């Protein structure tokens, strides 16, 4: 079986940094050694050594990956206008199975080039998203969006819920594709739909992925109509669990933080999107202090404009420091955990870690660039100084998928040509 040895390099295993060696056997991590313990190299091994940092493939827990097509079409608008006056009309006109496949793959290429090897998606035509993920060789946790009206895929909410169960069965044992329930939000998904999706989440042990407490307008209207905050009502309904993945969580009452902590909710924190849409600053430092599992995510390209997860983690760290006026909160190591081992808790399969038996999803980063050197503290160098141009290679299940910025699994020029056809149609529309 093919064997690689990353020998005597700096390793971040999702929890800590150390000097060590890592053995990859086929698709999984074989051995991890540190403190000077060596791994014997065999004659036919591929050996990688030098001035590198080896880290787990990063996990982006909240995306709408085909929305790469809508990058930059709706700028400088509050969330409600951005969504209802600009995004929904464009989606109604342009979303198709082929659009989700091609534009989704274009976004996946951007993810891979920046070291993301797993993403959790909430969108439409998710089987076509999965098909693109299998072709480009990236892990995807797909979730067909459930909203109160027929979706752009032509399904009623009831049909989408049935489709979610179909997806859960179809991909139950797939190596690269997993499934989540994906109700849009408390205000766009009726409680009866939420409860049916919770049953599916419980039956198939899959995540429940939803937008929560994103804008002040949203939470005020919700409380006015129900008499409760979103998390209070969701706990009352029995929707919360360790599989609950809550995107945004910006405008929260203190009692909601206690509820989230008690129910072991995972937060997908999207600082760029929250800032760009004027939603506010999430209480991430306080969440961490309360033991809430925080993962940093990008959101979709239409509200972020890039899918660079490490840059998002850098922003998240700095934003908490300035918000709290305390440079000691959300340290570099915390931010790096928020894109590796923290999201790995809900993604499962030991993703986001480098340890024996974990999938060999790895990012190899060269440290001798003008931007990154010198490296005194590898955590701060990686978070605050590196860029995607420092990424030497990316591996998914032991397979090299990126080398020096080039995607090795697809015809990049053909993908760009196909993507540009959709872009031209949007340009003509706007």
- CATH architecture label name of the largest domain: Alpha-Beta Barrel
Q: Helical segment tally? A: 16
What's the domain count?
2
Proportion of helical residues: 25-40%
- Mean model confidence by pLDDT: 96
- What top-tier CATH class of the largest domain fits best? Alpha Beta
Instruction: State the distance separating the first and last CA atoms.
Output: 53 Å
Evaluate the radius of gyration: 21 Å
Q: Could you please say which CATH topology of the largest domain applies here?
A: TIM Barrel
What's the arrangement of secondary structure elements?
Elements: E1 3-12, E2 17-25, E3 28-34, E4 46-48, E5 52-56, E6 58-63, H1 79-94, H2 97-113, E7 116-123, H3 126-136, E8 139-146, H4 157-170, E9 177-179, E10 182-183, H5 191-204, E11 208-212, H6 216-226, H7 230-237, E12 244-248, H8 254-262, E13 266-269, H9 271-276, H10 284-289, E14 293-296, H11 301-304, H12 309-324, H13 332-337, H14 341-347, E15 362-366, H15 378-385, E16 391-396, E17 399-403, E18 406-407, H16 412-429
Helix pairs in contact: 2-3, 2-16, 4-5, 7-8
């Amino acid at each position: 079986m093919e064997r690689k040895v990353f020998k005597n390099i700096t390793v971040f295993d999702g929890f800590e940094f150390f000097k060590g060696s890592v053995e990859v056997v086929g698709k999984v991590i074989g051995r991890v050694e540190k403190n000077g313990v060596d791994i014997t190299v065999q004659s036919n091994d591929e050996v990688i050594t030098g001035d590198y940092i080896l880290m787990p493939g990063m996990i982006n827990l909240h995306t709408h990956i085909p929305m790469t097509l809508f990058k930059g079409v709706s700028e400088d608008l509050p969330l409600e206008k951005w969504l209802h006056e600009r995004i929904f009309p464009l989606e109604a006109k342009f979303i198709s199975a082929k659009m989700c496949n091609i534009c989704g793959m274009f976004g996946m290429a951007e993810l891979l080039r920046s070291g993301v090897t797993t993403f959790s998606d909430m969108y439409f035509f998710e089987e076509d998203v999965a098909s693109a993920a299998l072709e480009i060789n990236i892990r995807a946790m797909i979730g067909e969006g459930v909203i109160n009206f027929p979706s752009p895929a032509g399904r009623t909410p009831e049909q989408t819920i049935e489709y979610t169960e179909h997806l859960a069965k179809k991909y139950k044992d797939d190596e690269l594709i997993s499934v989540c329930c994906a109700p849009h939000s408390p205000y766009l998904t009726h409680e009866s739909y939420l409860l049916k999706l919770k049953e599916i989440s419980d039956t198939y042990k899959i995540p429940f992925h939803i937008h929560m407490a994103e804008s002040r307008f949203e939470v005020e209207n919700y409380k006015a109509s129900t008499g409760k905050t979103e998390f209070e009502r969701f706990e009352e309904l029995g929707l919360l669990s360790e599989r609950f993945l809550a995107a945004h969580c910006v405008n929260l009452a203190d009692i909601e933080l206690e509820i989230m902590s008690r129910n072991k909710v995972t937060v997908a924190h999207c600082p760029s999107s929250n800032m760009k849409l004027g939603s506010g600053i999430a209480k991430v430092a306080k969440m961490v202090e309360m033991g809430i599992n925080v993962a940093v995510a990008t959101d979709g390209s239409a509200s972020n404009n890039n899918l660079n997860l490490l840059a998002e983690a850098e922003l998240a760290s700095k934003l908490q420091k300035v918000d709290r006026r305390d440079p000691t909160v959300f340290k570099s190591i915390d931010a790096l955990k928020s894109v590796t081992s923290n999201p790995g808790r809900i993604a499962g399969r030991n993703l986001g870690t480098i340890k024996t038996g974990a999938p060999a999803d790895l990012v190899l980063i060269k440290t001798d660039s003008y931007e990154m050197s010198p490296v005194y503290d590898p955590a701060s160098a990686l978070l605050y100084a590196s860029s995607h141009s420092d990424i030497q290679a990316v591996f998914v299940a032991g397979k090299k998928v990126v080398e020096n910025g080039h995607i090795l699994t697809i015809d990049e020029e053909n993908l760009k040509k196909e993507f540009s056809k959709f872009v031209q149609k949007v340009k003509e529309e706007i």
